[in-house]
Write a structure and sequence with these properties.
The complex is a heterotrimer. Chain A is of the alpha+beta class. Chain A contains 8 helices and 20 strands. Chain A has a 6-stranded mixed sheet, with helices on both faces. Chain A has a 5-stranded antiparallel sheet with strand order 13-12-11-14-20. A 5-stranded antiparallel sheet of chain A has the order 15-19-16-17-18, with no helix packed on it. By secondary structure, chain B is mainly alpha-helical. Chain B has 2 domains: about 100 residues, no CATH class; about 180 residues, MetI-like (MetI-like fold), CATH 1.10.3720.10. Chain B is flat, with a radius of gyration of 25 Å. The relative contact order of chain B is 0.15. Chain C has 12 helices and 2 strands. In chain C, strands 1-2 form a two-stranded antiparallel sheet. The longest helix of chain C is centred in the C-terminal third of the chain and has 39 residues. Classes of the chains: A alpha+beta, B mainly alpha, C mainly alpha. Chains B and C meet through helix 1, helix 4, helix 5, helix 6 and helix 11 of B and helix 2, helix 4, helix 5, helix 6 and helix 8 of C.
Chain lengths: ~350, ~300, ~300
């Protein structure tokens, strides 16, 4: 099997619940063997999309292909997919061994082979010696591993994750991210991972599909999403704190605030939204005047919330851990390569930048 | 908590002692009286605290002189049928109502729950009519659809089916099993399970029925056992319906048999020791059941969540 | 446009959470059908038949039925014995549940305290649930026997002071006491479960606010117990209408002089002893309507007693 065989092609996939249009029509290709993250706020249709790929929801119209097969009308077990669920959805009354092996049992795999595959699968996620426990006797991280082992035991060509890390605490989550990446490299299945957490998306993904209201806002590599957001929605969704967006006006040579303060020298004319990441703002002795409203010292860097002349808020991230008192004034400079211009009405990025 | 609770605890102690005494008094009186012979009872002139030595003799008389032993078996079979039918029907139906997507589910749920509102005792008269001929609805159907007219033309006779379930175990049990509180209890329980379980089972390739048997059934053990015990006891303690549905002593459950026995005794000085022994004999199984299984029943019915 | 879509997506999410997951038609109906057939055959058809017969008269010697309109109702409603039975049912429905629930509540509050005897009490107090009303009747008719029972000494001092066989009030009291004995367990279980489900945190918070254990009964436990109290009232009201049958049939047979002839017993006698199918069906229909109205009224009250816990 070559990697291209497990690519997933969505063509005009639509989903309605009664009169409610949840996914208005998505066309996209998910690369075989790659780690793709579907990212979006809650209610954006990302879980519905994942369930449609898995076969847990029917599609209202459109086609889904996995490799060369059209699968939208097949039952879940015929699609070669496996899934890791948000609350793990382990069978509470079964031991870890039976949880992992249930799919094989249903499929009628002989007992001897079943045992070997359960063992191999459990070992590959580091579940030594826990095979005879019940889920209730395991920690959150261990349950997560069982859920993963249950998914990979059938050697699926596509692995689906439905917000699987949202129940873990922050420290465990980072560990699991690392393990999932390694696991992905080892088994080489096409992985599709749904989350609302942009940190998970940025760290895990080869490519991120950012959804909003059931439509793709941007579908690109993480760095691309971060540096070149296609819309103001993407700009504010990715990054913490988010990209600053300032309402400004271009006079042909520079972008200025309504009071005339020059923000960046760019050849643009007319009203515009200027986007700049907090870390692309430098504190300088002479530049755009700001007034400190609030500051957070995080040790490695500090975040300063400031007001520019017309009252618009600006987040500044600076490695200089400067203590600032509220009301103190200072001035900043935008790194001009990093500034992005957006259309103020449509929110789309202007191609010139 | 550091708190002075001596006053309230002492009051609670007194209340509970009085309560237990009130509950136990009839049982103790019945037991004491059942240890007396008829002659001892008559000479004692009624209720008393004397302990006799005729308990085993009275029990022997129950086996020799009354039909209660056979009727105890009837009670047992009827109660098993009631509990079994209630639990299986309610379990499969609730599984469908909770885990299937169907617009009829609301109506079916309402129809089953409404049965709780009107107890069987209220409609014994017409339930008797139905059980006396369970083919009656079939006859209506034949008449309404015009099949009767057709058959009259062809065969010259009106089809009239007749099937009486009176005096049968199943005929006594089925109407008792209609009350569908279990649906409500199982529904609450199913809704408390992780909602992705059926999805996980579907990804593992299990069909709905396989999910019901492999996953839901073992998980529901606690409420199933509790409701089974509860309805077993409920079936055992039924009186009015078995009284009318089972006319022959051979088909009657023990509670009805006991009442018949009591009504047959003379009014002035009845053979109270025998009756008390009979009452204990009839109540022994369910009382022991509730005493031993109390925890499981209360936990499984999950009455705290309404 | 966007905000509307978000709303729609949110609604779909809620809808998809309450929706069942499986879709198979055939398996759905084969799972649901057994219970549907059962309740239609042995519940809905009998209920409908009762209303049918309340408008029809059975021809003598099995000659089918004859539509008589409201004649049956007229006959029943003009019968003073019906109103007597109805009135006694109503009194019984107020007195017996009121006492049974009140006593259960006191017992549950006591058993909720963690003292040594409460474990035993929690077990023993529910035993009567396993005893049939008719069996209780057989025992209680002996206990309250005027010459052999516990009040026999009273009669020796002053003959005739206690005789449920002659005195209607005495007979009524014996039935009520037997009903209370039988009714305590279920109410006790429900109320005790309710008390134990009250979060411990609340008692601690109230204690921090300076409320002692007695005060907490009134200020905390009783208000939070209202849903369970409400439930017990609903169940007891319907229950007592029919449960008294076993007691009456074994203890008093409706006597003396009809003093304990509740409607449920009258219907049984009219239907199965006097073979008056239409009369019994009409009274059944009236009693059913009465019960339904009571239940609806009670559920109207329910919204005053619901708390989010």
């Amino acid at each position: 099997m070559t990697l291209a065989d497990n690519s997933i092609a969505l063509h005009e996939v639509r989903k309605t619940f009664g009169d409610n249009l949840v996914v208005p029509g998505i066309t996209a290709e998910i690369d075989g063997g790659k780690f793709t993250v579907i990212l979006g706020p809650s209610g954006c249709g990302k879980s519905t999309l994942l369930n449609m790929i898995a076969g847990l929801e029917s599609v209202t119209s459109g086609t889904i292909r996995i490799g060369a097969r059209e699968v939208q009308d097949l039952a879940p077990k015929e699609r070669g997919c496996a899934m890791v669920f948000q609350n793990y959805a382990l069978y509470p009354h079964m031991t870890v061994r039976n949880n992992i092996g249930y799919a094989l049992k249903v499929a009628g795999v002989p007992k001897r082979e079943r045992c070997e595959r359960i063992k191999a699968s459990a070992e590959s996620v580091g579940l030594h010696g826990l095979l005879d426990r019940r889920p209730s006797e395991l920690s959150g991280g261990q349950r997560q591993r069982v859920a993963v082992a249950r998914a990979i035991v059938r050697e699926p060509s596509v692995l689906l994750y439905d917000e699987p890390l949202s129940n873990l605490d922050a420290k465990l989550r980072q560990g699991m991210r690392m393990e999932l990446t390694r696991l992905h490299e080892r088994i080489g299945a096409t992985s599709v991972f749904v989350t609302h957490d942009q940190v998970e998306a940025m760290t895990l993904a080869d490519r991120i599909m950012l959804l909003n209201n059931g439509e793709i806002e941007q579908y690109a590599a993480p760095s691309d999403l971060y540096e070149n957001p296609a819309t103001t929605f993407v700009a504010t969704f990715i990054g913490a704190p988010a990209m600053n967006l300032l309402n400004a006006e271009g006079d042909g040579s520079g972008i200025r605030l309504p009071n005339g303060t020059l923000l960046a020298t760019m050849p643009f004319r007319g009203p515009v939204t200027l986007g700049i990441r907090p870390e692309s703002i430098e504190i300088v002795p002479d530049g755009i005047p700001c007034r400190n409203v609030y500051s957070e010292d995080l040790g490695s860097h500090s975040i300063i919330v400031a007001e520019v002349a017309d009252g618009q808020k600006l987040h500044v991230a600076t490695p200089l851990c400067r203590r600032m008192t509220p009301g103190e004034t200072f001035s900043v400079r935008f790194v001009e390569d990093a500034a992005r211009l957006f259309d103020p009405t449509s929110g789309k990025r202007l191609q010139s930048t | 908590m550091v708190e002075d609770t001596r006053g309230i605890d002492r009051t609670a102690l007194v209340i509970l002692i009085v309560g237990i005494a009130f509950i136990l008094a009839p049982i103790v009186i019945a037991f004491l009286t059942a240890t007396l012979s008829y002659e001892e009872f008559v000479s004692a002139g009624g209720i008393g605290l004397n302990v006799g030595s005729s308990f085993l003799d009275n029990m022997r008389r129950i086996f020799v002189e009354t039909q209660l032993p056979g009727q105890l078996w009837n009670s047992f079979v009827i109660s098993i049928l009631v509990a079994g039918i209630k639990c299986t029907f309610a379990f499969t139906a609730t599984f469908a109502l909770v885990f299937y997507d169907c617009r009829w589910s609301r109506i079916i749920f309402a129809l089953t729950i409404a049965t709780v509102m009107l107890p069987l005792e209220l409609v014994v008269i017409t339930t008797y009519q139905v059980v006396a001929n369970v083919a009656m609805p079939l006859n209506w159907l034949i008449r309404i659809t015009g099949l009767a007219w057709l058959s009259e033309r062809i065969f010259g006779t009106m089809p009239d089916f007749n099937l009486s379930l009176l005096d049968t175990y199943i005929g006594v049990a089925l109407p008792i099993a209609t009350s569908s509180t279990s649906v409500f209890i199982y529904r609450q329980f199913f809704l408390s399970l992780p909602k992705d379980l059926p999805r996980a089972a579907a990804m593992d390739g299990a069909s709905p029925c396989r999910f019901m048997v492999d996953v839901l059934l073992p998980l529901s053990w606690t409420p199933l056992v509790a409701t089974f015990m509860f309805w077993f006891i409920g079936g055992w303690t039924q009186y009015l319906w078995p009284l009318v549905a089972a006319a022959t002593p051979d088909a009657q459950p023990a509670v009805v048999g006991l009442a018949k026995l009591a009504n047959a005794e003379p009014d002035d000085i009845p053979d109270v020791p025998l009756l008390m022994a009979g009452a204990l004999f009839v109540s022994f199984i369910p009382v022991v059941l509730i005493g031993v299984m109390q925890r499981q029943i209360v936990r499984g019915l999950n009455l705290s969540e309404k | 446009m966007r905000s509307r879509l978000v709303l729609v997506a949110g609604a779909a999410r809620i809808a998809s959470m309450t929706r069942g997951f499986y879709t198979g038609r055939l398996s759905y109906w084969s799972l649901v059908l057994p219970i549907l057939v059962l309740i239609v055959m042995f519940f809905y058809i009998p209920v409908a038949l009762a209303f049918f017969w309340s408008f029809f008269l059975e021809r003598p010697f099995g000659g089918g039925s004859e539509f008589v309109g409201f004649q049956n109702y007229g006959r029943v409603l003009s019968d003073p014995e019906f109103w007597n039975a109805m009135w006694r049912t109503l009194i019984f429905m107020v007195v017996a549940p009121g006492l049974a629930i009140g006593l259960s509540l006191i017992l549950a509050l006591a058993a909720d305290r963690s003292i040594r005897i409460s474990q035993a009490a929690r077990n023993i107090i529910i035993w009567p649930k396993a005893v049939a009303g008719a069996s209780i009747g057989v025992v209680f008719v002996f206990i309250f026997n005027p010459f052999l029972g516990i009040f026999a000494p009273l009669n020796e001092i002053s003959p005739g002071i206690w005789n449920p066989r002659i005195d209607g009030a005495d007979a009524f009291i014996t039935v009520v006491i037997a009903q209370i004995w039988n009714g305590i367990p279920f109410n006790f279980i429900i109320l005790l479960s309710g008390l134990q489900a009250i979060p411990d945190m609340l008692a601690k918070a109230a204690a921090m606010d300076g409320s002692g254990p007695w005060r907490r009964i009134v200020d905390l436990q009783l208000p939070l117990l209202t849903p369970q109290l409400f439930l017990t009232f609903v169940l007891e009201f319907v229950g007592t209408v029919v449960e008294a049958f076993g007691l009456i049939d074994t203890m008093t047979e409706g006597g003396p002089g009809g003093a304990t002839n509740l409607l449920i017993y009258k219907i049984y006698v009219d239907g199965f002893k006097a073979y008056d199918l239409s009369g019994a069906a009409t009274q059944t229909a009236l009693l059913m309507m009465f019960v339904i109205v009571m239940v609806i009224l009670q559920f109207r009250l329910e919204r005053f007693v619901k708390y989010e816990r």
